[in-house]
Amino acid sequence: MMIVGNEKDQLGTRLDNGQMRNVVKKVLVSPREGWEGWVMRLFALGENGCSPRHSHPWPHINYVISGSGVLHLSGKDFTLEPGSYAYVPAGEMHQFLNGGAEDFRFLCIVPEEGDQ
User: Is the whole model's pTM more than 0.85, yes or no?
Assistant: First the structure.
């Protein structure tokens, strides 16, 4: 099965609560489209946006598309820019933070259970 699309055609979900701030998530490819076992999401963290500081029992892979940000991973801060990538192992405490005024946009690929 082929899957070809454009993120502009996908609706985003705003995630804004006590732990997340100014985040939009788009699911680009998932089992619903035929990619069994995996989900590719696009996150956009707006100005002052952040994901929660958390850990979970699955790994994920990230690739930065635009903007700049910080990945807090296992007690260390890593500066991210377009072209940066990261592998976050299962069980590691982590958080993404926008480092500027421009949206910080990155792909996040997780096993299916990571996007329930």
Answer: yes
- What pLDDT was estimated at residue 1? 77
SS (H, E, C) the chain: CCCCCCHHHCCCEEECCCCCEEEEEEEEECHHHCCCCEEEEEEEEEEEEECCCECCCCCEEEEEEECCEEEEECCEEEEECCCCEEEECCCCCEEEEECCCCCEEEEEEEEHHHHC
Q: How far apart are CA 5 and CA 14, in angstroms?
A: 21
Q: Which domains does the chain have, with CATH numbers?
A: 13-115 (2.60.120.10)
